[in-house]
Design brief:
796 residues, mainly alpha, DNA-binding
Length: 796
DNA sequence: TTCTCGTGTCATAGT
DNA sequence: AAACTATGACACGAG
């Protein structure tokens, strides 16, 4: 397994590097986070919850001092640290992602600049450090935080100017021109291909050069204002904005697409194409005339002429646009949303601040990536990608992005509206219509001016489908509400869990953590205190970390007073009876043995307490002693009874070597040894059981979360489907009206009109339009009329 | 009294 | 083989 993992991981990394080198953006997270647990485990290893942690080593190497080495909270500790780091990074709008960034680098030995910015979680290969100068800070967080930010900083401008040293900006100036000779023809071809792709997308080569131009300008004019700009950039991306990296990404090449290119152009085109395809599939019945099969140039002519602003997106090339970019963006958008959800819960203000900061820069921002650059308000968690890049909808955003945690049930609906408006914008811009209400309202027969003979089919299928969709969506809204309540529940559960008394602080006595190092429990031989003690061996817990210190003290038995060790073992219910004891004030709800209370208290209180201080407190403790003994575990009582000279905790938690040494040090009877081994076995099993139960609980919670996520996905997909259906209907209506218009103007040689009831339009692949008879009966009649071929202009 | 829940323990399988 | 971990099953006490 280990070999497999190594082999597989290395192979994957190499493959990813290759892909990245050729400009294909590789998002490892997508693969890791998808439903491929085995793959994820192979690469990342088993989740910590199922990992058998080497506690003893961890304790020595990590700063988890406060945690008992066997504590089930160790997981929580690491989780806490991870979450803390994430929280710290929230103001940078960073999306943790495992991405591989590679550059084709021709390293100039004199131009190595020390790495700027922070280390990305992604794997930066080799020269990556040398490539990043301070300006590149923009790029690095962009890869992490921009969601759809460019992973590959393949810079066409750099490629253009230096043809090869496509290192990001920093070295560009110095290194330019240095690597031309090293470029192979394939490299140049590759660069050219990528460039042509961008040209195809409507982006000239120069539009990619903004950052470079800016940096060049800055480097040419290094005045304080410029440095201030640099600082502004850094500041702004710290506030959740990345300037360069937030630009839309070409899903194919991973390049930045300038802002004027709508991110969702491809989405738009996809939508239309999807609509047309769906329409084709949905309405095959006898409506070929009214609804043409979209082929080839026809659509190009439509889109190019109708929507110049989105011409890039609507340029329906003969090949079908792949859904990859959209899905990718969608995925990343959801990632952003997930983070925004967190931010909305806790740091709404900071989110809005970062939004404001985005206004300070005329650059595309992180929000600008989603077409929200105008709007400084925090992003709503339920924002859909569809309308995200439609600035025309910006008037909706104040409402949209108002944090609506209190009205989640409303959110899906508003989201749907936004979605609709986004699509309607596309449709309207395409067809020049302005009736937005048609999108939301049941389809009004917009083609009221149609020729009477034109069959305006009621299309029961669509109606039924849509009604069912509406029902389902309303149900799903409920489901989403339910999901939210589950989220709340799980959150509450987490909070409760974190407050369950397993916290580190509660395990630490404010009195003296170090004093617990004196908690040698070797006082078994001391019978100086009570009859109670004489019948039970003194057993106190000491943490594992105390072992070394304890070693030196063992055997040095002072006047042992078992009260503390007993106190350490009692449950929180019992502790509540001793609120008067200062040592116990900070302790509550600790009914686990994983964080032994004994570590909070000295097992030799006399080492801490002066003789004078002992009196009243000791009496109190003495009075409670019997009660405490009741709550000592069976093994502890047995250990006391057998006069085991060290604590149960040591018995359980010591590494086997130290444990054996400990046994060897003392001359113990067989019964004692057996008991000690039993205690160790039971203690370990006890902790294992707790771990097991905790894991079970986490698994259940995760499954609930998964169900909730799936419900959300389902609702989203249904909404999208709904929108497609609406778009299809609109297209269909438009096509009907267009056909009617055509028929109203068509005349045969004798000036007779073509009745739409008898003829239909057929569209050729070359854009030609044929008038064909509807039926065989009409066909005979049509023999007299020569098929008229007409080049139909699809303009509106 | 009964039920539920949390916990400890045992047996056993797996690592 | 020993040590350790994971987990199902059961018992027991508290609420």
């Amino acid at each position: 397994m280990l070999y497999l993992k190594k082999y597989f991981t290395e192979g994957l990394i190499q493959f990813t590097i290759l892909l990245s080198l050729i400009g294909v953006r590789v998002d490892v997270d997508t693969y890791l986070s998808n439903q491929l647990p085995p793959l994820r485990e192979i690469i990342l290893g088993p989740s910590s919850a199922y990992t058998q942690t080497q506690f003893h080593n961890l304790r020595n190497t990590l700063d988890g001092y406060g945690i008992h080495p066997k504590s089930v909270d160790l997981d929580q500790f690491f989780t806490t640290r991870r979450l803390l780091n994430e929280v710290r990074q929230l103001d940078r709008l960073s999306v943790p992602s495992s991405e591989l960034n590679t550059w084709l680098v021709h390293r100039d030995s004199e131009t190595v600049v020390s790495a700027g910015g922070q280390s990305s979680p992604g794997i930066t290969l080799d020269n990556g450090a040398g490539l990043e100068d301070i300006n590149n800070i923009d790029a690095t967080p962009a890869m992490r935080g921009g969601g759809g930010a460019p992973e590959s900083t393949y810079d066409l401008n750099a490629a253009d100017s230096s043809l090869g040293a496509v290192a990001p900006e920093g070295n560009q100036e110095q290194g330019s021109g240095g690597g031309n000779d090293d470029l192979t023809k394939e490299d140049i071809d590759l660069i050219d291909i990528l460039w042509r792709q961008d040209i195809d997308l409507g982006a000239g080569r120069e539009v990619f050069s903004y950052s470079n131009r800016q940096k060049d300008t800055e480097e040419e004019k290094p005045n304080p204002q410029d440095s201030k700009d640099v600082n502004d950039e850094q500041e702004s991306w710290r506030n959740g904005i990345n300037l360069q990296g937030s630009q839309p990404v070409d899903g194919e090449t991973g390049e930045s697409i300038p802002e004027q290119l709508p991110v969702l152009g491809s989405q738009t085109s996809l939508s239309l194409q999807e609509c047309l395809r769906l329409l084709e599939a949905t309405f095959p019945f006898g409506e070929e005339a009214e609804f043409p099969v979209p082929v080839g140039n026809q659509e190009v002519s439509i889109s190019n002429e109708e929507v110049p602003s989105t011409s890039q997106g609507l340029t329906l090339a003969p090949q079908m646009p792949t859904a990859e970019p959209q899905l990718d963006l969608e995925q990343q958008w959801q990632d952003i949303m997930a983070i925004m959800e967190l931010q909305a819960m806790d740091v709404n203000n900071s989110a809005s601040n970062s939004g404001n900061a985005s206004n300070d820069t005329a650059e595309p921002t992180a929000a600008g990536t989603f077409g929200l650059s105008e709007n400084p308000t925090p992003i709503n968690q339920d924002v859909s990608l569809h309308q995200a890049s439609l600035p025309s909808c910006s008037q909706d955003f104040p409402q949209i992005f108002r944090p609506q945690l209190d009205s989640v049930s409303v959110t899906p609906r508003t989201s749907m509206l936004r979605l609709s408006s986004g699509n309607s914008t596309n449709i309207n811009s395409t067809f020049g219509a302005t009736n937005l209400t048609g999108v939301f309202l049941p389809p009004i027969n917009s083609s009221s001016n149609n020729v009477t003979s034109t069959p305006n089919l009621p299309d029961p299928f669509t109606t039924l489908l849509e009604e069912s969709m509406l029902d389902e969506i309303s149900l799903l809204d409920l489901a989403m509400e339910e999901g939210f309540s589950q989220a709340q529940a799980s959150q509450l559960e987490e909070e409760l869990d974190s407050d369950s008394g397993l916290s580190l602080d509660s395990s630490r006595s404010p009195a003296s953590p170090s004093s617990s190092e004196t908690s040698c429990s070797s006082a078994a031989s001391s019978s100086s205190t009570s009859a109670n003690f004489s019948e039970e061996g003194a057993v106190g817990y000491s943490t594992d970390s105390e072992a070394a210190a304890v070693e030196t003290e063992e055997g040095a038995v002072g006047g042992y007073q078992p009260e503390y060790s007993k106190l350490c073992r009692m449950s929180f219910q019992d502790l509540s009876q001793f609120n008067g004891l200062p040592q116990l004030d900070g302790i509550s709800h600790n009914h686990t043995y994983n964080v032994p209370l004994s570590s909070s208290f000295p097992e030799h209180p006399d080492l801490l307490l002066s003789a004078g201080k002992k009196t009243s407190r000791d009496k109190k403790l003495q009075a409670s002693q019997d009660l405490l003994d009741k709550h000592a575990s069976r093994d502890e009582r047995r250990a006391r009874a057998m006069k085991i000279p060290f604590s149960n905790e040591k018995i359980v938690n010591l590494p086997v070597e130290e444990f054996n040494e400990l046994l060897a040090k003392h001359h113990l009877s067989e019964a004692q040894l057996a008991l000690i081994r039993d205690i160790r076995r039971r203690g370990k099993n006890k902790m294992a059981a707790q771990n097991c139960r905790k894991r079970k609980l986490e698994t259940i919670i995760n499954l609930e979360q998964g169900v909730q996520d799936l419900r959300r996905d389902k609702a989203r997909l249904l909404k999208e489907k709904m929108e497609f259906i609406r778009s299809i209907r609109q297209l269909k209506q438009k096509m009907q009206s267009l056909c009617q218009e055509v028929f109203s103007q068509l005349r045969d040689e004798e000036g007779r009109p073509f009745p739409p009831s008898e003829y239909c339009l057929q569209y050729g692949a070359d854009g030609s339009v044929l008038i064909a008879p509807r039926s065989g009966a009409a066909a005979t009649q049509q023999q007299s009329r020569k098929p008229e071929k007409k080049q139909k202009d699809k303009k509106k």
